[in-house]
Amino acid sequence: MIALFDILASAGLWAAVLRIATPLLFGTLGALVCERAGVLNLGIEGIMTFGAMIGWYSVYSGADLWTGFLIAALAGGIFGLLHAVLTVTLGLSQHVTGLGVTLFASSFAYYIFRLFVPVAGTPPTIEPFQPIDIPGLSSLPFIGPAFFSQTPPTYLAVALALILAYFLFRTPLGLAMRMTGENPHAAEAQGINPMIVRYGALIFGSALMGMAGAFLTLSAFNSFFPTMVQGRGWICIALVVFSSWRPGRALLGALLFAFFDGFQLRLQTALSGVIPYQIFLMIPYILSIAALAVMARRARVPQALMQPYRRGER
Amino acid sequence: MTVPILEISGVSKTFGANHANDDISMSLAKGEIVALLGENGAGKTTLMNILFGHYLADAGKVLVDGQELPPGKPREAIRAGIGMVHQHFSLAPNLTVLENVMTGTEPLWLLKSGVNAARGKLTAISERFGLRIDPDARVGDLTVGEQQRVEILKALYNDARILVLDEPTAVLTNIEAERLFITLKEMAQNGLSLIFISHKLDEVMAAADRIVVLRGGRKVAERKASETNKAELAELMVGHRVKRPIRTPSAPGDVVFEAIDVTVRTGGVDRLKSVNFHLRAGEVLGIIGVSGNGQTMLAKLLSGTVHRSEGEMLLFGKAIGDLSVAEAIAAGIGRIPEDRNHEGAIGEMAIWENAILERLPSFSKHGLVDRKAGQEFARSVIEAFDVRGGTPTSRTRLLSGGNMQKLILGRNLINRPRILVAAQPARGLDEGAVAAVHERILEARNKGTAVLLISEDLDEVMALADRVQAIVGGRLSPSLTAEEADARTLGLMMAGEWKAEAVNAL
């Protein structure tokens, strides 16, 4: 019991929670934007991998960290455009296309990586983002080191959640986007072009997924290896449902999952030898499924999610 | 002579070889209600889609206030003051009334929606036109009638001066429809101009100032409502005289089904409250009532999809337990479900597949579906029941409503069922199809089938039923014979008036 309490009371845990949550938050917000416009984007896992690679490689070749981050976003946007051509213009199955994008983007990432980075025993490294202390707040006891000593992308992710919440629920474009995800025919009848809205949402959302990947190589770690995304993309897809398609709750969901994850990492060390560590590895996923089961029952799915829109057809 | 607010001149549109619209011209004056009358497929909806810019016309033009409207641009149509209320609502059930109305009405790059101003404008409009609604209600929680109100408000919010309603009563109950027409008339008096599309003669006569009749893509006539009558309009619309079948006196046989004090409870609510009724061979029992009063449960009870909670049921004189769907079919109970698109047929499957679906075991050979026999069966249904617009292998979705209903009717009646449960069999069908469906039902009854007809259409019940019971709040009235059941008595019964009389009689 004391061990548990010690873990919870350490600022290190909470700092780690925010760090673990950041890529999930970028990814979840990206998938959420796509789905609010009515398109499921299962390309996320691959786009994150590609973003992680290209962001890292840009910095490795001499670009500064923010340029690398932006290049990852841009690459994500291009995959989003690809997904949009296939699912919006051609109206192909969003599941199948998304999985295709994932397989393509992750293999392509590895291919480029192998093309330009020589095989080595230990992968080459870069100098990642350093934590920035928020003046004033970071010197607060406990809370300061726990929450206000993070790398810049983490602050950006949290800010994005709030901005997107405002965008979706307070601006005309946000409403147009939600309407497109609920009923594109109604949107069209009100003079909104659902095709353009879906393209925009996919490109922007996928750019966020690219950033999610870049965070892994530019902030959380300092090198790239092909399996590093480790299913985080799929977690994001589940977190979108958990969040009921609301950015604010996406923040909550990402933090909750990250908390489980950070907690189990520390339990592993605290109880090593007593219980096999694989048990702890399962915990965040089991708890996520449980939380999903509770939350998703009340969720209101965008009604036009996964339905291709064709003009004039009802 | 004043310039008409709207003028459609010489509009033509072909889809492949099909002339959907052929040189149609019509006009609309301020404050006028014009009905566009025609059977399904006469080109009414196509014409309105051209007006609204959803389709590009091959020829012809649309003038609003004497100004030509650029074709193919819904946005321009909205700007010119044309509002369209589609038959299938274009609403987002998860969003609020206000959100549905506001979508697309503000410049998209604004950093903040003017929600308060919008709420004010919406409230003002809804008060002015008597379309009361809660702006913050979730649309999915509203009734169908209220959702239609939202659609109308959406158009008015866009400053529509010309309102087009596509079959506005197709989804409404009688009472809601009456209320709608009162509202429409008030709106016309307030200076709005209205076009409504319909194939129902009663409502056209009741609500319109002028009636434009379309048939086969052409305008065949234009009449003032005061100078025509239903018979003439029916003939113009169909192209020949329509004969509604005439019911001959019945010769009822044995009681084939009897329900004694049956109660059905689902989710803790009594959907049917200790109802009594019986069906006799060769007789039509009509159940009249506004939808949502338990008639769905009544149909399900006989189809085996819902089980009674209390009471007794006798089938062919024998007390029975709970019917399963398979047992109901095996016992010879044919069903015409209320919602033919969702429960009656599977649109994406072929006609022959839909034809044999209920009787799959009898169309199986060595555990495989016997396609040949199935298609043969479908062909015989198509022939015997005059299903047009499809072959056994074409997709069922492509059939019109009337033909789909004939297919459903056919697959049931071709095997001479002993009982037929027909729920709202003519809902949404045009004149010709209604007559065909009614004729088939009476034919089955004359051959000895016991028919349970569930309907909210007074005319339909009076035309078909030998006995009538009203359903209100899950309770059934005592039965009246066809002779006793005049429109007024039935109307009172639908409002639940029999109880008072029964009490008085005691």
Automatic annotation (TrEMBL), chain A:
Signal peptide: none annotated. Keywords: Cell membrane, Membrane, Transmembrane, Transmembrane helix. One of its GO terms (molecular function) is transmembrane transporter activity. Its main location: membrane. InterPro entries: ABC_transp_permease. GO terms for cellular component: plasma membrane. The chain crosses the membrane at residues 12-32, 39-59, 65-89, 96-113, 155-175, 196-218, 275-296. It comes from the Bacteria. It is found in: Cell membrane. It is a multi-pass membrane protein. Coiled coil: none annotated. PANTHER family: ABC TRANSPORTER PERMEASE PROTEIN, SUGAR ABC TRANSPORTER INTEGRAL MEMBRANE PROTEIN-RELATED. This is ABC transporter permease. It comes from Paramesorhizobium deserti.
TrEMBL record, chain B:
The keyword Transport applies. It is a peripheral membrane protein. It is found in: Cell membrane. Residues 6-241, 257-498 form the ABC transporter domain. Keywords: ATP-binding, Cell membrane, Membrane, Nucleotide-binding, Repeat, Sugar transport, Translocase, Transport. Pfam families: ABC_tran. It comes from the Bacteria. The keyword Cytoplasm does not apply. SUPFAM superfamilies: P-loop containing nucleoside triphosphate hydrolases. Its main location: membrane. GO terms for cellular component: plasma membrane. This is Sugar ABC transporter ATP-binding protein. One of its GO terms (molecular function) is ATP hydrolysis activity. Belongs to the ABC transporter superfamily.
